[in-house]
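queue> holo job accepted (nicotinamide-adenine-dinucleotide)
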Amino acid sequence: MGDLVVEVDVAVVGGGPGGYSAAFRCAELGLETVVVDGGKRLGGACLFEGCIPSKALLHVAALIEDAERARELGVDFGEPRVSLDPLRKWKSERVVGRLARGLASVAKAKGVDVIGGRAVFESSRELYVEGDEPQKVRFKHAIVATGSAPARLPGLSLAGERVMDSTAALELGEVPERLLVIGGGYIGLELGQVYAALGSQVTVVEMTDELLPGVDRALVQPLARRCEKLFAKIHLGTKVTSLLEKGSAIEARLEPGDAQTFDRVLVAVGRRPASAGLGLEHTRASADARGFVTVNDRCRTADPAIYAVGDVTGEPMLAHRAMRQGKVAAEVIAGRPAAFDNVVVPAVVFTDPEVAWCGLTESDAAREGRTVKIAKREWAASGRALTLGRSDGLTKILADPDTGRVLGVGIVGPGAGELIAEGALAIETAMTVEDLAVTIHTHPTLSETLMEAAESLLQQAR
Ligand code: FAD
Ligand code: NAD
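queue> job finished
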């Protein structure tokens, strides 16, 4: 008997946010669509090992930290006692499981089938799906949405459950007494804060001279100050040159520095695209030297039948970018005039305090030799920030000096991840600083800091 053959309009490879957004939009536009996913489920890295479980654990960390801060306000809840079993159960069943069931029922309602197995392109028209029930999927169009996987540390070969990537760290097998975090980027700082709140002594080793390299220093500073308090030690400009098992512990050699002993290690040094072994060489689609699939602003690869979206197409590797690209690819396949022509992809680091930004940054402007006007609003002057006991924030706006258009927004402080949506909307809709300044913002809110920063930019103009 030959392999089962399924014929569809669109085959989506990968069921993460890029893949399921693409598939749902294809189905809405009347295209017969299947998703092939290695785990036979929708959600991808974002739902099962990324955004959602990490934000659930960060919420728990915030609860612990808020309870600690409450002492200053005269409210004492006593020492927190964390029970890992109920915490894991809540994260996995009530948060991740519930969202996974939701996505499965949306797929069913829209008529999108999910096939389990690893897909490999055999040609520009056909995929082979490996797995328990091998089958072929013949398609008119395919969308590659295979995402990314944690990068490994070159030269450090130690494996085992004591050396974790972000997926293992999110499982919360135990709260180690001493945790080494390699990488002071998004994951290192988010999960470092989670483990510190749960009781680990966290040491962060970052290769460059700064935490969150590339992000505006004025925004990172309040976070860096918080991390200095929360973490046992932060080593900047430092590399881990070896990891050795010493009994039940791990000895890490730091360069510069000495050997130090830890109970667990979290490696968070970036992610790499999941494009190897996909069989792209049997199509006309191509990838760059790092393995990112090359696409244009329609999410088209060099093969007219094949599109690609999400992390596998490059930076920034963020779920909301993947989702937008997924919808664009679906619309383009359906013959609609869509393009991934967004002016900004906002970014949020969900630490305490949160750091969020979109559009032009001060260092981008300096690099491009571009003259900009900049306003900074310290949260120490915000009524709302003081009522929350949090004056450690800053709102920053960059604008074009001639047109007054908002070009960039950066925010640090609790809730920055929600507030940045206003900045993204302002830039995407070509708002001017005056538009922001004259829009009535509710009082007392942190959103007023955007209005006030805009007002101070207007005053600079006079
Ligand atoms: P993925 O979500 O990676 O999904 C790809 C899917 O394809 C997977 O299910 C995979 O099994 C499947 N697959 C791969 N190859 C094949 C194949 N050959 N055949 C069949 N199936 C295949 N982003 C944010 O925007 N906000 C956050 O707060 C955030 N937090 C994060 C926290 C962590 C710890 C991590 C690791 C990431 C986080 N991200 C966050 C990034 C976010 O998870 C990714 O940007 C997003 O998941 C990318 O979506 P995607 O659809 O491109 O791919
Ligand atoms: P990252 O790129 O954010 O940070 C990696 C850090 O590791 C960098 O600061 C880098 O300088 C450092 N580094 C690299 N090699 C090193 C070495 N040998 N020794 C010490 N430090 C080293 O990557 P990440 O934290 O692994 O996260 C991966 C991606 O996942 C992010 O870039 C982002 O796209 C996504 N993500 C997003 C969120 C969010 O949106 N809130 C959260 C987590 C992850």
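queue> The chain has a mean pLDDT of 96.
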